[in-house]
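Key idea: predict the complex, not the pieces.
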Amino acid sequence: MKSDMKLFENGKRLDGRKPDDLRDIKIEVGVLHRAEGSCYLEWGGNKILVAVYGPREAIPRHTQNPLKAIVNARYNMAAFSVDDRKRPGPDRRSREISKVTSEALEKVILLEKYPRASIDVNIEVLDAEAGTRCAGITAAAVALVDAGIPMKDIPVACAAGKIDGKVVLDLGKEEDNYGDADLPIAISPRTGEILLLQMDGHLTLKEFDEALNLAIKGCHKISEIQKKAIREKYQPKGGK
Amino acid sequence: MTKESREIVIPSQLLGEEKNKKAGKGTYVENGKIYSELLGVLNENNRYINVVPIKGKYDPAENDFVIGIVIEAMSSSWLVDINAAYPALLHVKEVPWDVDFNETDKYLNKGDAVMAKILEVDQEKKLQVTLKDRNLYKIKGGKIIDVQPSKVPRIIGKKGSMIKLLKKYTKCRVFVGQNGRIWVDGTNEGIKKIEETVDLIEQEALSFGLTNKIENMLKKDAKDVH
Amino acid sequence: MTVTAAIKKDFIVNLAKKGKRADNREFNQFRDIKIEPGIISKAEGSARVKIGNTQVIAGIKMDMGEPYPDSPDSGVMTTAAELIPLASPDFEAGPPREDAIELARVVDRGIRESKIIDVEKLCIEEGEKVWIIFIDLHILDYDGNLFDAASLAALAALMTAKIPNERFELGEDKPLPLSEPPISCTSVKFDNIVVMDPSLDEEEIAEARLTVSTDEKGDIRAMQKGLNGSFTVDEIKKVINDSIDNGKKIRQQLYKSVGK
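Result:
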């Protein structure tokens, strides 16, 4: 539904950003006591907490794959994380996001090392402001590294979109609600392979190219933030 | 940058090329290039590039000595938790007692701790342990301390140097399982000292000169007490 | 399911017989408590509480709705708890099981029965429209004593919550009409030893559990005994006294953290 909402004012977006600016991102590694790996991530107004358990024997038995591990990503929004309270429990949107997230992560994890096991990735959205699935995957990747899971790469996700006819990076809340298109992607930064891609709205081929390139550039910037956070946690500072 | 500690590497980090060195543990190869698959410590020598994991569950290897906790007593075997991705099976044939069918719970029950040895790890990662060896038995008394399995080599030390220090200065009995479980028994003060020392080793595992630092610390505390 | 070593129980019991706890606390001493209100921007009120490593977030959401037929001029309050799989290797995804339900109901009663919220001030139109308060408890890290962590988080969230009048065009946002909150203190008993603010290990070997809520005058406002062991009358009296003492300290910390 279109509205008269102007999303651009003097070349700047509602929150003051330029078209290819990311919102502020902060990543903390290893924040939970019980989980094998964990990550707390703030991205704009999003607050995401991810815990990884496993690899552990998959239960129920019929879900076990004798050749490799399965990835159980569970994306969940806390009741208080959105404007209108959300009833606890998975809804269809959460289940779809859980599925595409599991699939994105499966591609880069060395699953054959853990036959019959499951790697459980719990993504909790504590505070939501557009782009939670990208924030979830980005945080999940860090939590997996923190858990010592063997991976080919550290996946990262970011979205681009179109507002007021212009292609921009990392949609904020009003932009997501009133914009013309939304394109979240996840990539394996080392190879550039696309692990997740969804799109809704309306884009010409040229606009799609522009949006995809912008989202990929955004992913690489965020990948640096992930890696820095991981190193800072585990590389002891020199000089004692 | 002074080398105060060993280098950390992360998954997807480029470590070298197959034409120069062999890809060892914790690495994978693509198009002739060697990459890290883990968050770990780079361990490189003239021939191999290895990555030693910093975190993660215990990766069972045959003949490893481990400390297990019994999960369930079944009709002719027990299921044992050994801090790996999978539980291990202990068959009645592999214990020093003569156990009748369905009498397994007379010998070992849920919650009992055992010193065991990994007997077999098969293709599907099905694990078997045994108690049939010297020094293997059901544990009584003492306390089990959990550590990252990757830190176990540092806690044992080169040729057991670190664990010798711990035993000497705390007068405790100490048994280190490869699976990241350490059993200690002795005075409460001794056990606490070991916990503190193990904590320190875990945090500083990557620095050089750790053995000396720990020895000095233990010596000093022993002097303060007497 | 994770299994605990039986020798762990022996170790804790033997230490306790010598008057000590595994983490060096006194029997009636709480772990470090951290209270952070206002951490969730989407919620009308929120707080994160850490007791030791146990971590809980409480979120308050408010909406307009119909009152219950038997109390047409009262606001409505409802409490839910989620023991999400994030918090422990033993929590499973799915609808809340008895432990989550008991937790939610105990926290709920602590607030409801002590009448902290003046629900009659939450009436907008008698019989037609009242404020509905949703308290959602999200357990993030389970290391013992969820009852006290969750209760404290709910209180801190309520005390910093704002009624969203602006959003519904009813005027300015205002704080909730609250009175002095009682503070809950939970103890467990094992082998005739009673300890307060149980760690995960102590909870795992507990035979009986007692939660006591006290107010600033030192009066008792709520009690709940759990598990299938028993307490002697003397033990209960000691727990009540320790709960009053700890309650006072925790209340001060709570007031400080919400800026009172």
